[in-house]
Amino acid sequence: MKNLKNFYINGQWQAPASDNNYVVENPSNERQIGIITLGSAADVDKAVVAARAAFTNYAFTSVDERVALLEKLLAAYMDRYDEMAHAISQEMGAPIDFAISDQADTGRGHIKTALEALKSFEFEHQSGNATISHEPIGVCGFITPWNWPVNQIACKVAPALATGCTMILKPSEVAPLSAHVFTKMVDDAGFPAGVYNMVNGDGPGVGAAISAHKDIDMLSFTGSTRAGTLISKAAAETVKRVALELGGKSANIVFDDVDLDAVITRSVQACMENTGQSCNAPTRLLVQASVYEKAVAIAAKAAKETKVGSADKSGDHIGPLVSKAHFEKVQTMIEQAIDEGATLVAGGTGKPAGFELGHFTKPTVFANVDNAMTIAQEEVFGPVLVMIPFQDEQEAIAIANDSLYGLAAYVNSQDQDRANRVAKRIRAGMVRINWAPHHYTSPFGGYKQSGNGREWGKYGFEDFLEIKATSR
User: Which of 31, 50, 337, 384 has the smallest set of CB atoms within 10 Å of its CB?
Assistant: First the structure.
């Protein structure tokens, strides 16, 4: 079992202010794989002092200096790439092939994209008699989740480093192994002491201390909408900038002119990817009524063919849910959907056959779902798909927009004009037409209760910069 109890503060691994041990579990087999310390406000204070001191110099480093440091970080990341992939697979249950090809690649992708954006970013320009400067906002606090752990670390840390900010990271206590590996990469790269600090902890302890800290200038949080609301309230006392990437219940609209077998099968696979634990997962499948029954049969077949297996096994299967508590939450939502009258066509409650240990759940599909049902309105964060029929373009748009969330949406149609019309009218931050990829250079973020601000690429720089006008 790995001992990960120390924090990284002011360029050194340091013992926490007090012992408050937390055991990290492998969700595939429920074995203990590591131990961390849940930090306290005292640890946050220490990290903030280091970050504040480092900011006085790091804020005024040149673009060339920061480019050189990010190049070293990218090299360090590639040196430890396999270590990162295995850490993610063990801590949150991503199957190892998926962890290597997708999960670990996000860290590489965000560092590289921030590096390229930095090389061409205009930090200063003239407007009339004024010089408009984009300056680093200061000390940043980052609170990141367990579902795509290094993705959310890298897409915050890389642009903050690029823009001249200093920071304190609180990774998820459920999945801290990847953050430990990432911190070793930052140390390998040789960033000045205090620029990057990492303190483990839970939300009520370290998360709350970061949110309310008077000497933290900006806070970036990824997680649930409920937690984002609490963080915003705590941060309001010090009027710090808050960027939030929160929940989703993304609509996937399928018109009757597509290759139905291919599109519905792809839709099920996209929902089940990462065991459904993605905020932008296409979890509401809206299908035109003329082909709805056929689509239901295809979806049920695809879900039943979805393989489930241990994260350490090679293959294209899905892994377990991250924890027992999350497994029980997903089970409760499946039961509630059945009670509310949704038609179960695949999966259901309980674990798949042959699984006793591990937090595995059945790939599940519900048909005849009304968009007012709980299962259609609340984020499940598991391998659960709901299918809703619609008559025409207008009804599809109305159902898609009938949600508290607005993170992502998907539109499938051979009529490009129609696809473009629908995409324009959907209230979501990201729309993918006919499964077009969403690249690292595109902004990531949503409307409504899916949050505010944008991450990824040059768009991720904006939250870390203040704008100054110097008139002459």
Answer: 31
* 245 catalytic per annotation: yes
Task: Evaluate whether residue 445 is within a structural domain.
Answer: no
In this prediction, residues 10-19 reach a mean pLDDT of 97
Q: Sign of the CA dihedral 452, 434, 378, 308?
A: negative
Q: Rounded distance, CA 116 to CA 137, Å?
A: 21
Decide: 376 and 397 in contact? Cβ < 8 Å: no
Residue 177: which CATH number? Answer: 3.40.605.10
Q: What is the rounded distance in angstroms from the CA atom of residue 185 to the CA atom of residue 324?
A: 31
**Residue range 82-125, pLDDT digits in tens:** 999 999 999 999 999 999 999 999 999 999 999 999 999 999 99
Q: Are strands 465-471 and 130-136 parallel, antiparallel or unpaired?
A: antiparallel
| 199 and 152 within one domain | yes
Give the DSSP H or E segment for 431.
strand 430-433
Based on the domain organization, do 327 and 231 belong to the same domain? Answer: no
Q: Total structural domains in the chain?
A: 2
Distance spanning both ends of the chain, measured CA to CA? 62
Residue position matching structure tokens 């009524």: 289
pLDDT tens, position by position, 137-162: 999 999 999 999 999 999 999 999 99
Whether 444 maps to a domain, the answer reads no
Closest to 270 (Cα-Cα) out of 376, 366, 385: 385
- Could you tell me the residue range of the domain that residue 176 belongs to? 2-246+450-471
pLDDT higher than 90, residue 132? yes
* 383 within 8 A of 275, measured Cβ to Cβ: yes
Query: 235 is written with which tokens?
Result: 């941060």
Residue 187 sits at φ, ψ, to 5 deg, of -65, -40
Distance CA 370, CA 456 (A): 34
This prediction's pTM: 0.97
Instruction: Establish if 366 belongs to a structural domain.
Output: yes
State the Cα–Cα distance between residues 279 and 387, nearest whole angstrom.
18
Identify whether 298 is part of a domain: yes
122 and 191 within one domain: yes
Q: What is the CATH number of the domain that holds 402?
A: 3.40.309.10
pLDDT at 1: 79
Contact 298, 269 (CB under 8 A): no
Q: Summarize pLDDT for 391-425 with one digit per residue, the tens.
A: 999 999 999 999 999 999 999 999 999 999 999 99
Phi first, then psi, for residue 69 (nearest 5°) are -70, -40
Average pLDDT value for the chain: 98
**Do residues 149 and 179 touch, judged by C-beta distance below 8 A?**
yes
Candidate list 25, 91, 173, 245, residue with the active-site label: 245
